Queue: 4 jobs
Job 1
Amino acid sequence: MTDSTIGADEVARYLRNNPGFFETHAELLAAITVPHPHGGRAISLHERQLEVLREKLRAHEMRLAELLRIGQENDAIGEKLQRWTRQLLLAADPAQLPGIVVDGLRTVFSVPQVAMRLWALRDAYHELDCAQPVPVDVITLANSMMQPFCGPNSDFQAASWLPDGGADTRSIALLPLRKGVDPNAFGLVVLGSADPDRFRSGMGTAFLERIAETASAALSRLAE
């Protein structure tokens, strides 16, 4: 005597291979019941299918809302970058550019702590505040950076340029400035915050790279 019991896997395989089964046996949709996902009562298979579709719809709506939020944030960032870039382009006197860069980062982008140092400048700009002496170690660090750094303030020398010497700076971003394709930097922008998550390790740096490129292009008028 052979065992004619059909296993659950075989039933599932049959239904997958015969997607039109319930079209020819529609009466089963109302007869088959399954547990409600959020309660103990039983519901028909048709109701369960509707519930699955509703859950999928809610997930899609949440994903769409998240995409819209990201899009709005990107639009806002793009508008700020355009406004800041316009201020740089309108500067008639190159000596005004360092101030516009720093003030713009602080006000337009709402960065609480901003500082910048430039070196290898033309003789006419050696008296600018941003042209104060820079330690060799900081210049070496800037030259070695191929992209901005974000992370905790681990007693970086450049953090001392920030207000109050960076005493309450918990997170920091370092943006090297380069003239064209020159591998050596001619400056460094320092962004700081008392919020340890403002410039956290592992965060994307694409936007900071755009800021560094724009600042570099503007300030290159001062470099040798």
Job 2
Amino acid sequence: MILLLNILWFIFGGFISGLAWLLGAALLAVTIVGLPWAGAAFRIGIFAFAPFGRQAIPRRAVTGRDDLGTGDIGLVLNVVWFVLAGWWIALHHVVIGAAQAVTIIGLPFAFQHFKLALIALAPVGTTIVPAGRAAWI
């Protein structure tokens, strides 16, 4: 079922969503200033191509230790991201998710857009894992 949902997601908008995230990551990588956010945008872009069966969790929960993106610097990077781009991107995913939630068939896809909206608010310090692996929640 997860494979079927990911295929339908990819065909009916997931490709565009993932491509937009990857384009944003490429633009961030081109600028020296945006380089700290490029990795997070790239991870979300790959996640946006096939989000069913996977979820984003803090990297600290996976590795068991702090790193550059999970400490104080990660917090500052997430605040800057939220102010400059995160809330716009999250709003985009919420609007699309709300439009898809109008129909029963669109509910699973709306849920994935809402999930992407939450990730878009603070992407630095997160990692993508299979849904069953996130037992800490």
Job 3
Amino acid sequence: MKVSPDDVKRSLEANREAYEAIRSGLCTGMTERDAFALVAAAVDRVCVDEPHEFIGDFVGGVRTGSIEGPPTDYVFKAGDLFILDLSVRRGEVWSDTCRTFFLGEPTPRQREAYAAVLACQDEGVQTVRAGVVASSVRPPMIDVLAARGFGDLMPHHGGHLVGPEPYMKPAFEDGCDGIVEAGDVCTLEPGVYVSGEWGMRVENDYLVTADGVENLFDYPRDIEYFIIGGSR
């Protein structure tokens, strides 16, 4: 079942509001559960008069190296990263995006990894179009990471369909030979993870067309936008 891209964009309004709430409200001394509360309030503000819900990953500090997880009592400290992978259902349609926040100046290696993640996502944008076999999308994305020294550090898929559900097949992973069709909405979500240290991921939603994809989430990706700080 395909969904209207305009309905996906309406759900994405809540993602935008949630990321802005984190940018302005998250600081050292807060917990992952505090971040969850900021997101919950933001989603409620946008979707107040409609049925809605959200799910996601709320991982900070060394937990980001493990890719995913629910919010815990982990307390943010200076230098931490925070992965917020957020899926919102507004009405009957889901969104699914991810951004990584930096509580202080990223290290040179983290900046290199972030640039590699964006280049990897851009490669996916160039690869996905109607008629593509899903399993063919991830390999060129990994090649981009490998060329920059991060090829072994993305263990998950490169993206998937989204719409009536937050995760749908075909997904951009080995062995998934479904065909991507015009009118599908998909994600591209590359990441780099250093176990026990840090991890990062960036994800957007795209409308698949005969000639490529159209980005449905007009929201910044530049690393400088996601460097936040402060303490309480």
Job 4
Amino acid sequence: MKSPRWMSYTLFAAAAYNALWGAWVGLFPKASFDLLNMPAPLYLPLWQSVGLMVGCYAIGYFIAAFDPYQNWALVLVGFIGKVLGPLGMIYAVSSQQLPLAFAWNNITNDVIWWIPFFLILRGAYQHHLGQKSPSDSK
């Protein structure tokens, strides 16, 4: 059984988004802060590194898009990152290390992907349960 097409389309969209966002932050690290009228951090290369990591996720999503059920682990790694990112932001905002406005990054980078990634992972889990041979149920 193949995965539904929407899963591949979602992962291709996530790959494109992450590649573009990662390149934007990597090439123009000050732009995010300018858009939010925030002073840029003293160490912009750290922010550029975030962009590079996000860009690396794009590679995983691109690979996973060809067979989401087989490449579920790549989706899981992304899903974990998309849950941990907002948790880190909650801490940074609550400890007044970042302004709340900066959390917009988490909406587009993380939160909007929670449901589709969860559904892909659930589908992969159900698919793999159905793939078990009779000897696996012992």
